[in-house]
Design a protein that fits this description.
- Two copies of one chain form a homodimer.
- Chain A has 108 residues and is an alpha+beta fold.
- Chain A is 38% helix and 35% strand.
- Chain A contains three helices and four strands, in the order E-H-E-E-H-H-E.
- Chain A has helices spanning 14-30, 64-72, 74-88, and strands at 2-9, 37-45, 53-61, 92-103.
- A four-stranded antiparallel sheet of chain A has the order 2-3-1-4.
- In chain A, helix 1 (14-30) packs antiparallel against helix 3 (74-88).
- Chains A and B meet through strand 2, strand 3, helix 3 and strand 4 of A and strand 2, strand 3, helix 3 and strand 4 of B.
Chain lengths: 108, 108
C-alpha cells in the first residue's frame, strides 16, 4: 500500500502540538478521498532513554495514484498547506513510502 | 498495540544497508517471540523532493510486557546489539510507541 507518514518531534509546548494534531491534521486526513486506514503511534521512548519524537501518524492508500488523487482534493491541499509550516520549522518529518505488511501466525 | 519502529537514513552505500536489513535485522526480528505483525516501508520521497530516510521497519506486539519478553529472548538481545552501532552512527532512528489503527469503511 501507499503510506504517507508524518513524524512529530517533541516540543516544549506539547499542548500546541496536540491541538494542531487533533484539531487540524486528524480531521483533514479523515476527509481524504481514498483513505483506507490510518494509525496513530504515541511514542513512549527509545532503547536507553527518551525519543526526540512525540508521535507518528500514518495514512494508507491503495496506490500512488489514489494518494495523488487525495492530494489533489480540497482536504488534501488544505492538509499539505497546514503541515508545511511545521515541516519548515523542522517540527515534523514527513515521507511517502510503499508499505508491505506481514502477519505472523506463529504462536508463543 | 506496542510498536517498535526503526527508521533507516539514506546512505551512500545502499547495498550495505540492504544487506544488514535483509541479512540481520529481518531474520532476527522474525524470530522474536510474541511478534504479531511487521511492516516494511520503502521510502519513495517526501512532499517537494527526496527524503533523508531510506526505509522503515515496524514490529508489533500485543503489549509492553510482550515486547519486554521478546527483548529478553536470545534473538531480542541479538537484535538490539546488532542495531546499536547503527544507532550510534546515527544511521537509524528507533523508538517505542503505542499504536492505534483505524480502518476506514467509507468508499470513494
Amino acid at each position: 500500500m501507499f503510506k504517507f507518514v508524518t513524524l512529530y518531534r517533541r516540543v516544549d509546548d506539547e499542548m500546541k502540538l496536540e491541538e494542531f494534531f487533533s484539531g487540524t491534521h486528524l480531521p483533514l486526513a479523515e476527509q481524504l478521498p481514498g483513505l483506507r486506514k490510518s494509525e496513530v503511534s504515541r511514542v513512549t521512548g527509545k532503547p536507553g532513554g527518551e525519543s526526540r519524537f512525540h508521535l507518528m501518524y500514518e495514512l494508507y492508500f491503495d496506490s500512488d495514484e489514489a494518494f495523488a488523487q487525495a492530494m489533489a482534493s480540497e482536504p488534501g491541499m488544505a492538509l499539505i498547506a497546514a503541515l508545511k509550516p511545521w515541516d519548515e520549522a523542522r517540527l515534523v518529518s514527513w515521507f511517502f513510502s510503499h508499505a508491505f505488511e506481514e502477519a505472523v501466525s506463529r504462536q508463543l
